[in-house]
Amino acid sequence: MGQHYSEDDLDRIIAACPGGLPDGQIDVGQVDPEGGGVIPDWKDRRNVLRQGLEEAATHFATEVKWEEGPTPTQSVKKLKAIKASANRLLKALDVQEAGNPDDLPQDILFALTGHAHRTGKEIGGFPNHPPEEWGMRDGRYTDYKGRESLLDAVQGVAWIRDWTHSAVERANIRKHNTEMHIAYGIVAPNRSALDALFGNLAGIWIDVFERDVATSTGKPETETAGQASGAMVLFVAECIAPLQDLGLKMTPEGIRDRIRRMFLDKKKAR
Question: Same structural domain for residues 144 and 225?
Fold first, then answer.
C-alpha cells in the first residue's frame, strides 16, 4: 500500500475536527475464527485513522483505474473470445477436449519439437526446462528441451481455456448479484469511485472521531454567509487535499452537496 498521507497531513485532518481526536484507544474488534463472535481489539486511535485513510485512498486510486478501463461487459466479451480462440487452437492441434498435451498427435509433435528446440537454443534455454548436455561419440550435444516446452505450451492453452471459462462464470454471477443488490437497495447503481471514497471517509468520521454526519452553511451575519462549512466538510477537504495527484479536487460546496446527497437526503426520505 502506497503512502498518501504524511504526519503533517494527519495533524491538519485532526485539527479540522473541533476537539481533535477523542481520548483513548478504539476497539476495532476482530471476528473470532472459531465462531465465538467478535473479539475486542484495542488500537491507537491515530494509527487507526492513518490506516483507514491510506486504505480509502488506495481503494479510490484502484477504482479510478477500473473506471478508466473497459466495462465488465466488455471484459466478459474479451474473455469469451479468448476461450473460443483457445478451443479452436486445441482443436487444430487435434488435442482431446480435456486438453491433455499427451494426446498431441505424433506428426504434430514431431513437426513442432524441432522448432521449439531451435527457439530454446536462441534464448539460451527455457525457464521451466533448463538445457542438458549429453556426451556422445561424436562430441557433446545440448538438449534444449523442445519437446517438454512444447507440451507445456499446449497445456498452457488448455489452462487459459479453462480459466477464461471460470472467469466468465464468476463475472456473470457478480453481475447477477449486483443487479439483485441494486433491486433491493443494498447498493446504489453506478456507484462511483468518489462515492466509495466518501463512504469510507464518513465511516472514519463516525468511528474514529465519534461524530455524526452533518453539514452547515455560514450564518448571514458572518463573512462566510451562505458558504458551505461545518466540521465534516472541513474534515473531508483536508482528507482529499493530499490526493490531488490522483486528479481529485473539490470545492467546499461540492463536498457539502455530495455528503447531503449520499447521507442526509436519504435520512430525510425515510
Answer: no
Is there a single domain that holds both residue 176 and residue 116? yes
The count of structural domains within the chain is 2
The total of other beta-carbon atoms located within 10 Å of residue 155's CB is 15
178 plus 76 within the same structural domain: yes
- Report pLDDT digits (tens) over 157-208: 999 999 998 888 877 766 665 566 555 544 444 457 888 899 999 999 999 9
Per-residue pLDDT tens over the stretch 65-117: 776 767 777 888 899 999 999 999 999 998 867 778 888 899 999 999 999 99
The Cα–Cα gap between 98 and 109 comes to 18
d(CA 103, CA 78): 28
Q: For residues 56 and 199, what is the distance between their CA atoms, to the nearest angstrom?
A: 9
Q: Per DSSP, what are the bridge partners of residue 42?
A: 27
Q: Provide Rg for the chain, Cα atoms.
A: 29
Partner residues linked to 126 by β-bridges: 129
Question: What is the rounded CA–CA span in Å between residue 262 and residue 232?
Answer: 14
Read off the pTM: 0.55
Same domain flag for 91 and 173: yes
For residue 200, being part of any structural domain is answered with no
Fill in the amino acid letter for 264.
L
Amino acid found at 65:
K
Asked if residue 224 lies in contact with residue 242, where contact means CB atoms within 8 angstroms, the answer is: no
77 & 161 share domain = yes
Domain that holds residue 254: 7-69+212-269
Distances (CA, A) of 39 to 44, 71, 79, 183: 17, 40, 42, 34
